[in-house]
Amino acid sequence: MAFGDQIRDAREEIITDVDDYRKAVTIKLFNSVIDDTPVDTGRLRGNWQTNEGSAKKGEVDRNNGGEAKDEVVSVTEASKPDTVVHLTNNLPYSNRVEFGRTGGMMRKNLARIQQILRGRK
Fold it and tell me: Which residues contact 44 (CB under 8 A, 6 or more apart)?
């Protein structure tokens, strides 16, 4: 195999490895946000929506996080390496819950994932 071919193969392998890591981190982060969403009726947890390229608009009729987590996996696994995967909750009270007494759903998981990525668990 020529040296140029070896470089090309190594590049492709690195791109694949980085994309696999991106997907794993995204799934872990988004599922942790869903798991940390407080439950009263389950509507808030079920309304987490995942989409590639742009945030979803509107609400969905789900009352548990299981379907939301399934959507996280399916959308993230199918996403292209050069696109952004969004997690959105459009319920009117989601912002109050995020910044209320719960300590947040997104904020605490973003802080935690940043520590993990920096190697400080």
Answer: 37, 38, 89, 91, 93, 94, 97
Work out the angle at residue 66's Cα, subtended by the Cα atoms of residues 88 and 57, and round it to the nearest 5 degrees.
Answer: 25
Q: How many domains does the chain have?
A: 1
- The residue type at 114: Q
Distance CA 25, CA 50 (A): 14
* Whole-prediction pTM: 0.87
- Domain of residue 75 covers 3-117
Residue appearing with tokens 């910044």: 99
Parallel/antiparallel/unpaired status of strands 85-89 and 48-52:
antiparallel
Per-residue pLDDT reduced to its tens digit, 25-45: 999 999 999 999 999 999 999
